[in-house]
Specification:
D-Maltodextrin-Binding Protein, domain 2, single chain, five-stranded mixed beta sheet, 247 residues, alpha/beta, 39% helix, 9 helices, six-stranded mixed beta sheet, 25% strand, 2 domains
């Protein structure tokens, strides 16, 4: 049985929907985790397949991208943000979200090459969001970003800032394996993922009955996220990975 780790955020519900089908067919064993934990499990060999932050792909022994899908955006994404009470020029410290290395590295690249600022960087710990005040900003990702962004005067959408900088889309996470998966299984993954994306409206309708519901869920999933790992996304991902090396 293939062990799979998938991100537990709203943005991955089309994938989770497909994976539940495979779980019911006893093809996989699924765990839902933060992006950082997805990567850690794959790196340690605890799972065979993971939806992991792009920045961690080089850390996976024998890691290779599989499936035609990803978590990406072509412009604003809404759920990966730098939140601040002051404009960029006045930020002294940036707290870094502990849940995804990709967003952290993206912020560092933008600060160095695009925003031209040199803040103090601090690792955020659980509950760090309450420390975002004054000239201390914070990188906040996932569902927390969606719920918090309206509370801050300055919201810098990191995917949108990357697009302004490079005129390219951005890939936050990909499906990566550390083993040779059967081609038929990969084809099945592609099939159930595509089906999950097609059923986003019904998946959102089910969310309304849970605490995870976000009022703009359908708009976010359909109009901000880009799930297809096309050539433009691959080129942008390669550029990002190259820029990480200079940090």
């Amino acid at each position: 049985m293939i062990k799979v780790s998938c991100v537990s955020y709203l943005n991955s519900i089309p994938f989770v929907s497909g994976l539940r089908v495979l779980e019911d067919e006893n093809l996989i064993k699924l765990s839902l985790d933060t992006p950082a934990d997805c990567a850690a499990k794959l790196i340690r060999g605890e799972v065979d397949l993971g939806l992991i932050p792009v920045a961690t792909i080089p850390l996976v022994p024998g890691g290779q991208i599989v499936t035609d899908f990803c978590i990406g955006a072509k412009g604003a994404v809404k759920s990966v943000t730098l939140l601040s009470e002051v404009p960029l020029s006045q930020i002294k410290t940036i707290l870094l979200d502990y849940q995804s290395r990709t967003s952290v590295n993206l912020t560092r690249i933008l600060a160095k090459e695009f925003w031209k600022i040199n803040p103090e960087w601090k690792a955020g710990e659980t509950g760090f969001e309450s420390q975002i005040q004054g000239n201390t900003a914070g990188v906040v990702i996932g569902d927390r970003s969606l719920k918090m962004r309206d509370s801050f005067q300055y919201v810098y959408d990191l995917s949108e800032e990357w697009f302004k900088f490079t005129n390219m889309p951005f890939v936050f996470a990909c499906w990566v394996t550390s083993r040779q998966l059967d081609i038929d299984f990969v084809d099945r993954l592609n099939s159930v993922f595509a089906a999950g994306i097609e059923t986003i409206p019904s998946l959102v309708a089910k969310l309304k009955e849970t605490d995870d519901f976000y009022k703009d869920s359908e708009d976010y999933l359909k109009n901000y996220l880009h799930y297809n790992l096309d050539d433009s996304m691959r080129k942008a991902m390669n550029l990002f990975l190259e820029k990480i090396k200079s940090l």
